[in-house]
Amino acid sequence: MSEQDSLYLATAMRHFAGKHIAIRGARQNNLKNLSLDIPLNQIVVVTGVSGSGKSSLVFDTLYAEGQRRYVETFSPYARQFLDRMDRPQVDKIEGVPPAIAIDQTNPVRTSRSTVGTMTEINDHLKLLFARFASLFDPVSGKPIKRDTPASVLRELRQRPQTERVAVSFSVSIPKNFTEAEIEQYLSAQGYSKVFARQMSENTLTLLVLQDRFRLSSVEDTRILEAVETALRLGHHRAQVHILSEEDSSVPVKTLHYCEKLESEEGVEYALPNPSTFSFNSPLGACETCKGFGRVIGLDLNLVIPDENKTLAQGAIKPWQTAAWKECQDELMRHAPHFGVPVDVPWKLLAPEHKEWVIQGQEKFKKWEQDWFGIRRFFDYLESKAYKMHIRVLLSKYRAYTPCTSCGGERLKGEALLWRVGRFEDAERALHSEDKLSEKKSYRKYRPVIVKFSDEILQALPGLTIHDLMLLPIERVKAFIEGLHFEGGLDEAGTLVLQELRARLEYLCEVGLGYLTLDRQSRTLSGGEVQRINLCTALGTSLTNTLFVLDEPSIGLHPRDMNRIIQVMQRLRNAGNSLVVVEHDPLVMQAADQLLDIGPGPGERGGQIVYYGDAKQALFADTLTAQYLSGKKRADALMTPRPPRRTEQGVLTGPKLRVENATEHNLKGISVEFPLQHFLVVTGVSGSGKSTLMDEVLYRSLLRAKGKPTETPGKCAAVHGVELIDDMVLVDQTPIGKTTRSNPVSYIGAWDIVRNRFAALPEAKQRGYTAGTFSFNAGDGRCPSCNGSGFEHIEMQFLSDVYLRCADCDGSRFRTEVRELKLPTLSGEFSVSDVLELTVSQALSAFASDQDLCRVLQPLSDVGLEYVKLGQAVPTLSGGEAQRLKLAGFLAEAAHIKTPRTRGTLYLFDEPTTGLHFDDIARLLGAFRKLIAAGHSLMVIEHNLDVMRAADWIIDMGPQGGEGGGKIVCVGTPVEVAAHLSSATGVALREYEASYAAAGLRVQEPAHQYVVSNKQDTSLNLPAEGIPLQIQIRKAREHNLKNMDVDIPLDRFTVITGPSGSGKSTLAFDIVFNEGQRRYLESLNAYARSIVQPAGKPDVDAIFGIPPTVAIEQRTSRGGRKSTVATVTELHHFLRLMYVKLGMQYCPKDGTAIVPQSLEAITAQILKDYPGQHIGVLAPLVLQRKGYYTDLAKWAHAKGHTHLRVDGSFLPTARWPRLDRFKEHTIELPIADLIVNQRNERPLRDTLAKALEYGKGVVHVLAPLERLTAVLSQGDALGASAQLETRVFSVKRACPTCGTSFPELDPRMFSYNSKLGWCTACQGTGLLTTQLVADEDRPEVKEGREQKLEQEAQETSEVDHTQPCNACQGQRLNPSSLSVRFQGHSIADIGAMSVGQAQSFFNSFKLNARETEVSRDALLEIKGRLEFLKEVGLAYLTLDRAAPTLSGGEAQRIRLAAQLGSNLQGVCYVLDEPTIGLHPRDNRILLDALSRLEKKGNTLIVVEHDEDTIARAQHVIDIGPGAGVRGGRIMAQGTVAELRANPDSLTGRYLAHPLKHPLQAPRKIDLQRTLKVEGAHLHNLQNVNGIIPLGTLTVVTGVSGSGKSTFARDVMLTNLKSAIAQASAGTVPTWSGCTRLDGFTQISRVLEVDQTPIGKTPRSCPATYIGFWDNIRKLFADTFDARSRGFEAGRFSFNAGKGRCESCEGQGMRTIEMSFLPNVKVICEACGGKRFNSATLEVLMRGKSIGDVLNMDVDTAVEYFASSPSIAHPLTLMQEVGLGYLTLGQPSPTLSGGEAQRIKLVTELAKARTDKTGFLKALQHTLYVLDEPTVGLHMADVEKLIRVIHRLVDAGNTVLVIEHNLDILAEADWMIDLGPEGGGQGGQIVAQGPLVEILKNEKSHTAHVLREFLLRQT
């Protein structure tokens, strides 16, 4: 370890000392109420016997909580794609960091998933090829290039510059035009010279001269313009003629150029895109095999399995059955006529004879006369495949074969014509540089599509994408690392190459360099999958993260174990914590802490038997320690039984022999496998073990036995197949997924038990059969739970709940079935009692039943004697499931009484996965029983105990990948251990030596070791050291100037500086984006596509970054249906509780809803519809989106002709395409009939059928006469029939009135669903004057425009002051409101305040079932209520509409939602959290942030607030200015250090704050005022407010006191309305107040807010303020412009001929990066200047129009000094602190504060100066500013104050809603609302001049303002 690493480790140990994850009361699965502390920044290995509870603790508890809490920080929409883990059964977990699991699961089983797609290397490769690949002609092999003006220019500049050239384009003369007409047209366009004429195929072509010049005397722009124009007018083709020096009209040579990709033969190729190189995309995948590379077709090896047979002997297997014997007869009849011998073995037949048998005769006409051949026979069968027996027959002879179209390439042929790299790059990858290396050389792959020779192929530069798929990853790495492209790389290219190199490097680091990218992921072992996932973890470079690993040693040879240990140590050294489930002793020894769970499995486990130093675990009194110390050995009772050999070592017993195996990396090996022995195949990782055993041997055996399989691996032959009866491959696939799958049924013992019960006399008497005692089917099982014993309750977005069935109490069977008792030696047992017995108990009870004991005994033999017979298989651990599978095979073997000469060959792939030493000992014993039964056992294994117990070992190597594929040695364990060059031999010798050493150690004096969680205090740590920190190096994002900065971890850091200086760039674009991106990289690609992580920032390196969470500003507060409960997600959990636990009552009479019988429904219909014609329908779909094509097919197959969809009867035979995104209700018509007594029986039968299809619900339509009428009028669908639908239910009906109700659904309680909302107000709760149904709304544009139009529409429809008359503001319909929980409707809960809701949920009592069902939902509800209370929002009601919240309340609600995740080690990045907060509330918030920081989190806050800066432990000041003048760190450190730093602008303002007032207070004229009387909206309590005109008035008060309601919703809204109504001559009406006086003195009112000034990059300050038109006119007036005929419109970048067409005037081009974030690059055509070259040639005082657009305001003021109409607004921009902005800065990049100040400039520019020098407004305007100081630095606040004063001095009135004390101190008049927030606010505490306010003792504002002003004196 280097000195730097040692220093880092020492610092980390001190930093993390005492920090731990505290787990209290863990009860998940079998855990026994565990409480423990897991130290951070250490490797903790968890071990123990299988089933002891390791995974329950590590994965189901620890990882689940860490992952769940971090995922909760994402949006609700994103969370549904992120597989949030279930909440574990635990009392409390504190201090858990965000968690990432690295396990062995591979959820993708499709063959489209490969190593390349799994690691996303394929995704990056397709981007690389799309951007940098070169195209080559498939016929000649020559490059095909696409010419551009720039490439033509480069080529011409490389020619002799003395040459004269002419540029021309071709114009073909159409047949209906003459040459003269075309020349006349060209002349009108300015083209008077035809350079040449050409005649071809009766078509005359004119070569029109575009330009002529000598290369030495022409500028590049002229050449570019000439070529660009010629290419455009010549339809993408142009000619450059090299002219003769003697005669300029004669060309010496003509160069042809084309903008398209076109070969010499005229074949045109499309430009590539990433999908071209993706076999998962329809654009790139081979059309035949759809990208799989193989197709299911006829496998001739299955048709002719034995090539030693002759045709007469039946070589063709399918024709030997009686059904198809006539084909064999036909063959025998035709063969002699064609000279085909029938008595020659198939393998010796001539190729032409084989071809005749397979393909049939060439001139085939009739089946009866001609020979059809094997293929025509199977083609005939394919035509009859609709018959079941034919499909079964075909399946026996089908197999996967390589696609004939693409040859396995998976892609369309054109994709493999593109190549990347140089010739040297390809050579480096294909050929090993080490001449002595045994690694083979590769040849370039020959694509199916190419026609040129192999010599040309090998001489081509670079490689195709399929070359890279076939090469080992280590070769691909060598290729990518050396790639070099001419002209360098842009940002997108650099990003792709960096990602590729990093991912390939990590794969090689974890020992997977031998894999190929096209290796199917489903063929990977669990260990390889885990190591690929580990690569992803390495690539994230995270810190402060919890990594949870599941046996990372699986699949690794002992020699390679150090690779994994080093990777884990690297993760730990980076500041992460690792918890590893592991049994390997090498990993245990490398751990810092060892946690041993036991003492036994299952119910005997779940306890901590040792927890402490891993090195001291050897001396503990545990089972693990006994094995580690050598007291016990897994192979102790195993005696190897070597196979018989001759003296020369040749095997003499039965054996299998594989000859010359060459699949993958196998080097033509021949190997013998002794049968009826225990054989282990081992070797280093990647040496070829799985290839040999699985792909070569196993598949060849299946093929030889005539069983379907994939194509076997290449080998010459496999001998000895006849020596085995069968072969079974035992892998790690799950053995059952349902709770009904259990051990006793899996091994086949339950059939015996059922027969024993059925044989009881009482059972026979009752007529019970064995089927009665089945819990999977029959009428003996409990009908309520269908034999599962559990009631399954779906909880939507929470984990589902399983409760014991209330009817059978979890026993699975009906009561009368359980009455039968089976006598045993241990007493009498019912059928359910037997399932509750453990295996050992069952063996004792049924000891006299030899048949049952013989089947049960294998369960005990494999160590599962503790498992209950009926335990659900999904609850078994991985190791238990593996052993249960083995027990199944042992049970089969138990039926054989004597050893057999021929047995089954069992092949196991790493069976010790998940097994403890003790479990391995049991496993080896079970293996011996299989051998004793006459079977053969072949195991791929790295476990040294298994090797030592083997009879025979085959060791492969010597290296992995290309360096492997050989047999290193074979023999007994002793012989292999003695082999000097065998890595396995070395491991066996070291293992034996370690046991000997351990045996010596255990003889030391005994010591007592206490189980403890305390840290080792003996570490000699330095007293001082570098702090752990986020290190950012050379940050260049946006305006940052190569910034180097260190941000301390676990500290409160404030980033401050002038507005626009780069604070948010550093905090969000770099720190947050990178922290979140690295965590998300550990998730699946689908999840990332939803969350869309940001791209990599422009920075050299970032070290030590933890997962990050952002709490950003939001300008919008939500729509009118959004409430406090929905924003905090409380309402989601409330809805769930009401569905699961609510009691429904009839909205008509209040009667409780109860189930209704079929008879009751029939009687109700007879009573309510006498004599009426009704239709009975079964509801199939209720308000769900989709096409439902399959449903229509099902109904059609059942004989139903129509389905009723949303009121229309649609035919099932010709099912139309439904709107996928619309919610549909689909009903199945059952019958129609007249209701009377005669039809009572048909009615009852019809209802029964409808209830069956409708799952207990039926719909009745009446009267059907209306339907008949509209059908006769031409309405074929019956959509216009006004039919009444009534619901009847056997589950929910009112016993009083008989009304039935549908099943409860969460959407019934949603304000956004038709099922729940009040139909009068559609869920708003407000009086709505006009309703537009969702489906009737006109479609509008997407994006922001759609949102704005909808908002405008909503505003015009709703009266925000009046509640809905129908629901009284409760938002829901009567049916939803009639559901109650604890006596309250969901609206009652919503009406409660946060504090009241807390008391309610803490006070009620629940029964056991309700407690279990509501557990997770109740925890979520209580947690969110507590967080709201912590941030001071206990007064808010849960149904408070989001638009009525103040800015501070909205900000704190978001903060509460984020802080509720209760994480540790996270970096929270906050963007001005004090926005909208009164100074008093700000202190409450800072206290909450401090608590968050003390939990071990890092806080980075972008802030200008002085109080917040004062509380920070570290401050970073960025400056010195804004924009291009910012981006540097001016000072950092403590607040005191900032004050002392003269370079820090923030420090200067902190040391010398503003002196108030900046100008004398204005005199208040109470005769000129605006008076608001009786304001009562929201929480306002009939207040009367006065706003003096011509003054600066500030409205302030604590958060939630009603400031925005008073100023914006009442005063501003009414003032706008009154001015508009007065101008229209109507009497004003008032909303939210009783009167508004004085409005006639105001000409207009304007709200200057922080909404963006534009939505597209084309919108900029120059166009918004309005001076850009003047600039365009100046340019149009220049001589250059006039001489070219350019008008002002030419200088517009929004439209016209002047803008650059490549970027459409935006200056930037967006490159779509598929799954990566899109990358914006500067437009290559215009260089970011937005205009084309001709427009940019026009100069004004040396500057083009593009240069002016990129000018900053400060420069532009000087440049336009002589143009007052332009200089005036520019000067105003300078004065408000926007001098750093460029004139063309895109609007979306402006902050809210910048947008607000630009709006102020626009207003200031409208005012004019009078003779006195004062600004005078053209009309009196009232400006309303809502918190204008948001995002402003102290220096910018000063500028803002001066601008506001200027507006007031111009004769206007400015009303500011503000908390900033500098603004408050400048007020002429102040209105202070309070005294508190919510219901306790809404009063004017004080109003008047500032001097009077300061005297008020009741005002919170006066209190803090006095302190503030006192500090300035």
Shape, per Cα inertia axes: globular
What order do the strands of the largest sheet run in, or round the barrel if closed? 5-18-19-3-20-21
Number-wise, the strands total 69
How is the biggest beta sheet arranged? 6 strands, mixed
From the N-terminal CA to the C-terminal CA, the straight-line distance is: 58 Å
Low-confidence stretches: 999-1027, 1331-1356, 1809-1815
* Percent of sequence in beta strands: 15-25%
What is the count of DSSP helices, taking H or I runs of 4+ residues?
66
Secondary structural class: alpha+beta
- Please compute the radius of gyration using only Cα atoms: 41 Å
**How much helical structure, as a percent, in the residues?**
25-40%
Provide the residue-averaged pLDDT.
83
List keywords for this structure.
globular, 6-stranded mixed beta sheet, 1913 residues
Task: Describe the protein in words.
The relative contact order is 0.06. Helix 20 links the parallel strand 18 (546-550) and strand 19 (577-581). Strands 5-18-19-3-20-21 form a 6-stranded mixed β-sheet, with helices on both faces. Strands 26-31-32-24-33-34 form a 6-stranded mixed β-sheet, with helices on both faces. The protein is built from 66 helices and 69 strands. It is 34% helix and 19% strand. The protein is α+β, with helices and mostly antiparallel strands and 1913 residues long.
Write the layout of secondary structure elements.
Elements: H1 3-16, E1 20-26, E2 34-39, E3 43-48, H2 54-71, H3 76-79, E4 90-94, E5 99-102, H4 115-118, H5 121-132, E6 134-136, E7 143-144, H6 149-157, E8 164-172, H7 179-188, E9 194-200, E10 203-214, H8 220-233, E11 237-243, E12 251-258, E13 261-262, E14 268-269, E15 294-298, H9 300-303, H10 325-334, H11 351-359, H12 373-383, H13 388-396, E16 398-402, E17 418-419, H14 423-430, H15 454-459, H16 465-470, H17 473-481, H18 491-509, H19 526-540, E18 546-550, H20 561-573, E19 577-581, H21 585-590, E20 593-598, E21 607-613, H22 623-628, E22 655-661, E23 669-674, E24 678-683, H23 689-704, E25 717-719, E26 724-730, H24 743-746, H25 750-758, H26 761-766, E27 790-793, E28 801-804, H27 815-818, E29 822-824, E30 827-829, H28 831-836, H29 839-845, H30 850-861, H31 878-893, E31 903-909, H32 917-932, E32 936-940, H33 944-949, E33 952-957, E34 966-971, H34 973-978, H35 983-1001, E35 1029-1035, E36 1043-1048, E37 1052-1056, H36 1063-1080, H37 1085-1091, E38 1099-1103, E39 1108-1111, H38 1124-1127, H39 1130-1141, E40 1143-1144, H40 1158-1168, ...
Helix pairs in contact: 5-18, 6-8, 11-12, 14-17, 17-18, 18-19, 19-20, 29-30, 30-31, 31-32, 39-48, 40-42, 47-48, 48-49, 60-61, 62-63
